[in-house]
Amino acid sequence: MKRRKLKLEELNRITIQEFQQASKIPLVVVLDNVRSQNNIGSVFRTSDAFRVEEIILCGITATPPNAEIHKTALGAEDSVKWRYFKDTMSALELLKQEGYIVYSIEQAENSQSLETIMLDKNKKYAIVLGHEVHGVDQHVVNSSDGCIEIPQYGTKHSLNVSVTAGIVIWDFFKKLR
Description:
Elements: H1 16-21, E1 25-32, H2 37-49, E2 52-58, H3 67-73, H4 76-79, E3 82-85, H5 88-97, E4 100-105, E5 112-113, E6 124-130, H6 138-143, E7 146-149, H7 161-176
Parallel strand pairs: 1-2, 1-6, 2-3, 4-6, 4-7, 5-7
Helix pairs in contact: 2-3, 2-7
């Protein structure tokens, strides 16, 4: 059976304005000192695909407008709501005041497996993704409500931050929509 690839016009994508008005999953993605602008752009693009509520960029994490972010975001930096905090801890304090349950995506003692974590559709969540080498800052881990770990079965002990974001956002989307 032949399968013809669809043309962009056939995908019936919504406009940026329609996206901004559309309902979102109750999820905020926090980038804690993510240094790669390509990773940041990828997180924007994935967040657009799965209707994430907002991205919070912290510390050394670059912000739009930025040509390197745009290379991978492909315009998602214009559709997904975002804001910048100099300090990740300040962002977490505000999210907790707003009623978010905050999870660091990190390999830590007593972390929960992404496979088994149960989410409540009536609650709001934030996930924190960290620096490509150092991960989520220990102070941020300490102030999180918990840690989520992606099970891995190979020889490496980490995934690229944009890959991690894609896996976790997709899992949250399936559980929260």
